Amino acid sequence: MYKNNALTFDSLYQVAKGGKEKEKKTILRADRSVLQHLIGAYGAGREVDLHNVLSHELMSVPISLAETNGKLRTGQKAALADVLTRRIECPSAIDLQGSACLLIDDMALVAAVGKPADAQTFGAYGDRFQDAVLVAGSRYQQIHVLFDRCEKSSIKAGTREHRTRTIRPVRRVIENKNVPLPNSWSNFLALPENKANLAKFLSEHLIANAPQEKVIVVAGGFSDRKEAQSSSQLVDPSLLCADHEEADTRLVLHAIVNSCDTVVVSARDTDVLLFLVAHLPSMPSPNVWMMAGTAARRKFFNIRAISENLSAGSLSALLPFHALTGCDTTSNISNHSKLSEWKTFQDKHYLLASLGEGELSANKDALELHIKRVHYQSLVWKQASCQDPILPNPDGMGWKRESEGGSKLVPLLMTKEPIPNAFKKIITCSCKNGCTTLRCGCNKAKLFCTGICRCSVDENISCKNKCDK
Known about the structure:
16 helices, 11 strands, alpha/beta, elongated, two-stranded antiparallel sheet
């Protein structure tokens, strides 16, 4: 028989926070005094709506969805890739059939290129970046390089801040190709303005220096967020002009518009794998692959094989499931991993199919605000095939502005007060006699004394103001 470590009111709201050293942990406890007072008052016969009280979090944040600092809980989303590719062969190399197109996530390539030792200026860096693009696409007739947009008002702002929280950003404006590279490449990339500047510079550099034997397509990095350019008339860029914030969803659009026999998407993010699987029915290419890993440990995912391996009818619910169980913009639910929820999803996937479609009714509590964020993120993902997605204002979808009139979005965790206002102050007394006069605060308020009044704690005091029930 397994030991059941049941939670108590003493342990229910304990949250372990690891410091820089693993052996050092700070246990953060909720202030349980209010709850203790409420239960004591209820036991004394006072009118306490416990159902209403327990519908509040009794903490400053909903700890099942957020950390004590208000940040959304994170999980291991990469584990989902292992589940999807179980019993499916993932080779380290593939043969390209017919005409082939390579779609590249720019930030994955920027991370792989790093700061070249032999590059001193941004012009030299642009050459090295282009070399990396052409080497990666040496076997392909078309190469598409897609960039993220670093928007000030973004639901991904919290994730980006978390990734660069220990880095001090350094501003460097790329006015021309002769501008020297910064000393610290990571500090340079930590600033969104630098990323946008670099994306514009690389986009223009790739198109201007495109070899005649290749079709180079670039989107997302120009000053106009919708602009896309092609080095050849073989690809119509007007079909790729899209109002997308992330390169991840642009990859899907380009895969759908592309007519090559084989489409390979170069990306490392689990999100992209899920997007490709979910949108596969809209892709005309018979051979769609995702290339992940590093050059030394390359892995190709067969998107069609993964799609066919899913349980019948679950494809439309795959993206809502990913958002519901935690991604970059939604919470990982405490003690509920993606792996543990996958079996439930396979049996009950139809319950999630409508998320990301239509509208939701008004909601109030923490879970429903989480569902709103899930719905909004699913709307974004499900419209990856659209050039101009139609999205509601995130302010009403589980997000709020950090400051009035500001642009930064932060998750709205609760609409209810953590503790009911009516119960924030509970009358107790400190009487040393029998509580028979109006000097007793409880008696004066025409309330029974509770188990936390002094008259109840002290065995030498015989309280006459107790409930007989």
